[in-house]
Every structure is written in C-alpha cells, then in structure tokens.
Amino acid sequence: MGGRVGKKRTDKRGVGQHHLVYSYSICYHQTAMTVGYIYDPIYLKHDTGQHVEVAARLEAIIAYLEKTGLTSQLTLIEPRPATVDEIALVHTRGYIKEIEDTAREGGGWLDPDTVMSAGSYEAALYAAGGLIRAVEAVMGGEVSSAFALVRPPGHHATSGYAKGFCLFNNIAIATSYALDKYKLERILIIDFDVHHGNGTQETFYDNPRVMYISTHQYPFYPGSGDIEESGGGAAKGTNINIPLPAGCGDAEYLKVFEQIIVPAAQRFKPRLILVSAGYDNHWADPLAMMEVSVTGFGQMAEIIKGLADELCGGRLALTLEGGYNLDALAASVKATLDVLLGNNASDPLGQSSRSFGAADIDRLIETIKEIHKLP
Ligand SMILES: [Zn+2]
C-alpha cells in the first residue's frame, strides 16, 4: 500500500543543515505531486448477488494496482461516511430513510436493475463520503488529484429514486458539498461513462455554477441525454450532452474531447474538475457497444488532467461509475492513474478486433458546437 495522508514528512524544516533543507524541498515537491486513491473494504459489503455490478470489480482493480506496483506510488486516503445532511444536499430525507430502512430489513430490489443488501446503506454512505474525502484532500492540498475507487456507483440516482445500480449520487453530493464548503464559483463535471448520468444532469440542470458534460451511447439506457437538454434558466448552456452512436472508439472520443469538451471547459473556467469515470465504453465490456481501448482511456485522462492543470491549479477528483469487464476495468483504472502520476500508460488488452469502421460524428459535433456557440 502507499503512504497515508497525515503521515507525510513535512517537519523537516531547515535547521541550518543544508542537506536537511534540501531534502525538505524534495519532499515538498513530491508531496505537491501526490496522487491519492480512496478505497476501503466497506465497499465490498454492498452485496448484489448475481449481478454485473459486484464487489469483484473493486477487488480486481485493487489486486491489479497491487500486482503492478502502482499502490506504492499512490497515497491511500481513508474514506469517511457522508453525513445524512451531506446526502440531503441532493436526496430527499424520505428517500435516505427508505434506503436505511431497506438495509435494516436485509435488503431488496429498488428498481429492476438495482438491489440492496444489509450492508448497502453503510457502503453507500462511505461511497459518497469517499468522494467527499477526495475533494477535501485535493482542495486542502494533501494530494494534487485523487480517484475514489468506490461502489455503489452514483450517476443515475436522482433526488428520490435509486436507478441503474446507483443508490446515492456520489458525484452530485460531492459537487454540492464543494460548492457549499469552499464557496467555489464554478465546478465542471465530466462524465465519460457509456451511460448518460441522468441523476447528475437533473441535480444541476438549473444551476449555473455547475457545468455537466456527458459523453454516452445514444439511444441507450437510461434514455436521457439528448443534445437539446442544455440547462434551464440562468443555467442555459451549462449542460452539454454528447450522445454518440454505437461503435465509437478512441478516435471518436478524442475528437469529441478536443472539439467540444476542451473549448467548453476553457470558456467555463472551473475552479475544480470532478469526473464520473465509467469504463463500460471499453470494447470488451458486456453492457454496451462502444470500442474504446485502455489506451483511449489514458488519452482522455491526459486531456482532463491538462484541463485541470490549465484551468484550476490541477484540482481534479474522479469517482468510479461503471465498467463490467474486470480485466478491462482494472487496466483502464490503472491507465488513468498512470496518467495522473506522469507514468507511461500501457494497454494489455489492445484494440478491438471487431470492425465497425469509423463512426461519422462530424455533423453531430457541428450541431453541438452550434447549440453551445463553441468556437
Ligand atoms: Zn455506465
């Protein structure tokens, strides 16, 4: 495991010995470049039984990060449970109680896709709290960026409903928390999960302080995410949907990032960037029909990190959403962390052997640029 926040050697102030002063400056520099990850076995207690969103997903990620030696380069940040008041920044008190009661009764199905066990309420509190800790660590300068490796995922959950494997909307809660606590003027959320984050869009649809940008397969679950859904009232233009046809791969995603996401982010000038990092658009994923490779996820991470460095002092926190092929998921999370660390990323799975041919998304990109008046 890597070092832990709070135990850094920051006490080596100069005492007249040059080598100590020197080592302090090196240490300080390394501290400034630290990348954190949030993980705790509590996330395994959300037991979904026969399901694609299973505890084995996180176990596969952690095992791979250990095996490849990456955890020794990272700082482990221990999560805390979100408080009910923090969850209530996004969800109704009645809904929170329903989740708590369902766990106390041993669990059950909340919608056709979403199931709970006795341990799910606590895991969900820690999932939201895990991303909150990531935000606190980034905002407090403990780490330069952080990745919350948590479950259950969150971006489909709305104020009063569980949906699509999600109980509490972790990224919406952490964003609301950051707006409140740090009085940030603007936060950018980038959601590259293959599904549209309907719950996140809904939470901030009328809020001009939050820009939500989503790439997603469309038409597809959950049905929302049309280009015309662009924000309400004073928030018009702060909701950017990029609905992509099935079969898009690295080239199409990079085009969309470079031509839409980068200029939109540069115009919005966020003070913090949060990311719904879903890896179910990998070509090997069983749920969707996209063709992204591990290399492609690394390239997306490069662009996002570049935006954070350029626009908001590098302040970047990611949270895990989907990704259901365990090998692809683990390698893609590692590639993302490698980029944050400045390592060369590798791709053990390679490119898809299926050939859909390049999807023609040029007209779609032009239309989105027109709607959002992007250069
Ligand atoms: Zn997804």
How do the helices and strands line up, and which of them pair or pack?
Blueprint: E1 3-4, H1 18-32, E2 35-38, H2 55-67, E3 75-77, H3 84-87, H4 93-104, E4 107-111, E5 114-117, H5 120-139, E6 145-148, H6 170-182, E7 187-191, H7 198-204, E8 210-217, E9 239-244, H8 250-268, E10 272-277, H9 294-311, E11 316-320, H10 326-341, H11 362-371
Parallel strand pairs: 1-3, 2-3, 2-6, 6-11, 7-8, 7-10, 8-9, 10-11
Antiparallel strand pairs: 4-5
Helix pairs in contact: 2-10, 5-6, 8-9, 9-10
Bound molecules: zinc ion.
Model description:
The chain is globular and about 50 Å long. The chain has a 9-stranded parallel β-sheet with strand order 1-3-2-6-11-10-7-8-9, with helices on both faces. The termini are far apart. Strand 7 (187-191), helix 7 and strand 8 form a beta-alpha-beta unit. The protein is built from 11 helices and 11 strands. The longest helix has 20 residues, at 120-139. Helix 2 (55-67) packs across helix 10, helix 8 (250-268) packs parallel to helix 9 (294-311) and helix 9 runs parallel beside helix 10. With 375 residues, the chain is of the alpha/beta class. The protein binds zinc ion (ZN). Zinc ion is lined by residues 193-195, 278, 280, 321-322. Zinc ion binds at residues 193-195, 278, 280, 321-322.
